[in-house]
Amino acid sequence: GCDASILLDGSGTEKGYDLIDQAKAALESKCPGVVSCADIIVVATRDAVVLGGGTQYTYAVQTGRRDGNISLASDATRNLPGDSFSASQATDAFRAKGLSASDMVLLLGGHTVGLTHCSFILNRLYNYNGSGKPDPAMDPAFVTMLKSRCPQTSTVDNTVLLDHGNPTTVDNSYYEQLLARRGVLTVDQNIASDAATNATVRALAGGSSSFPALFGGAMVRRMGGIQVLTGTQGQIRKSCRVVLWFGSSFCHL
Ligand SMILES: *[C@@H]1O[C@H](CO)[C@@H](O)[C@H](O)[C@H]1NC(C)=O
Ligand SMILES: *[C@@H]1O[C@H](CO)[C@@H](O)[C@H](O)[C@H]1NC(C)=O
Ligand SMILES: *[C@@H]1O[C@H](CO)[C@@H](O)[C@H](O)[C@H]1NC(C)=O
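^ peroxidase, sequence as received from the core. Prediction below:
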């Protein structure tokens, strides 16, 4: 999302977020054509983290990104680590973008707030690896609780919290939950059990590594710098939902 491709409307694009549109409209009315949607995402993400976790989570962000003109759901599927990845597959996916295993563990800590859909975890609850049983890595009481939220035959794809400790607060409870075998996605639980990442998870859960101090660093140093467009690359969109075209050609403002 570093070029704001996640904001473009259209069939098969990556996604759309209304709040970002409001921020963009406010900026365009004061200062047209200057602040990219990509920068708005980065600043808004930092502000959301601070609103959810407090000022100890604040971090300085770099700006000057420009917006991309392509958004393909298939790119997100291809580039993002899958919900069922092993810790080493997830590490490889982050490494391919220049991020380390500890960056990955820190960034997955973003699951301290937010939701997933039942469809991503039904296999863990009912038929793990075709066994007809739940994933043995999940606390059985937690399985029971999630099953009530995610009935096997439901026609509605309910949402479930990713962090059942302090679900609306940005904090290290995600890692505590992993140690209690209450990770929701397979990849969450895997980082707590894999020998290459479990020490990092344990240190963040126990507080010997400070999640507030380290999270922003992983966001800025690494994630916020992946494939950024600058200079005359890309464009500054007028609306975050649509690529700006000039005549029949792409407009470089
Ligand atoms: C489930 O299947 C995955 C992928 O084949 C494998 O890596 C994992 O060890 C299996 N887990 C269990 C508990 O059988
Ligand atoms: C990490 O996992 C390995 C292998 O399961 C285990 O030997 C080790 O004690 C664990 N380390 C921590 C810090 O949990
Ligand atoms: C979209 O942006 C890329 C990267 O800035 C550029 O190379 C490409 O020419 C643009 N596409 C169009 C159709 O303008």
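Residues 129, 136 surround 2-acetamido-2-deoxy-beta-D-glucopyranose (ligand 1) (CB under 6 Å).
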